[in-house]
Design goal:
The protein has 166 residues and is an alpha+beta fold. The chain contains five helices and ten strands; from the N terminus they run H-E-H-E-E-E-H-E-H-E-E-E-H-E-E. A five-stranded mixed β-sheet has the order 5-2-3-6-9. Strands 1-8-7 form a three-stranded antiparallel β-sheet. The N and C termini lie far apart (31 Å).
Length: 166
């Protein structure tokens, strides 16, 4: 699809609304979501024909009683201890899916680091800096946005830290 930078298109999500409002260049990638696929992120990478190290998943964790967003490559997994350290915490565990959905305003498999109902502290895996653009959920299963990691870091006020493991 064409880049969208000025005008909100019909069927937009809070993530694309936030990107448009910020005037950040991005590209929307839509694909047919298969509910039977075992991994939302791997499905996105396959459907878009993009390397899994450039497609990032958005995970919500509980660090010392507070929700935190981690954005890591779909090719790896989240290092919970590293996430806790990155935000100055001691202990991290994956958040309850219902709490993650309620707080972000998105459904599991479609949680975007952008345009969340309640802005959460965000940590972007340091590997994102190796790519000119990365893909993250646009806020709906089957919809991704491609943007620069610098823009994502700025818009989410993210900390960049090595929080993924292969």
């Amino acid at each position: 699809m064409a880049k969208k930078t000025k005008k909100q298109q019909p069927g937009g999500t809070p993530a694309t609304v936030a990107l448009t409002a910020a005037g950040v260049p991005y590209t929307v990638h839509a694909y047919e979501h298969d509910p039977a696929h075992p991994s939302y992120g791997e499905e996105a990478a396959e459907a878009m024909g993009v390397s899994p190290d450039r497609v990032f998943k958005t995970l919500v964790a509980d660090v010392d009683g507070s929700l935190v967003v981690a954005v890591v490559p779909v090719a790896g997994s989240l290092d919970l201890k590293a996430l806790a350290t990155a935000v100055g915490g001691k202990r991290a565990a994956m958040a309850d899916p219902a709490a993650a959905e309620r707080t972000t305003g998105y459904v599991r498999g479609g949680i975007s680091p952008l345009g969340q109902r309640k802005k959460l502290p965000t940590v972007l895996d340091a590997s994102a800096a190796a790519h000119p653009t990365i893909c993250v959920s646009a806020g709906r299963r089957g919809l991704e946005v491609e943007l620069s990691p610098t823009d994502l870091t700025h818009l989410t006020e993210a900390v960049c830290a090595p929080v993924a493991r292969a």
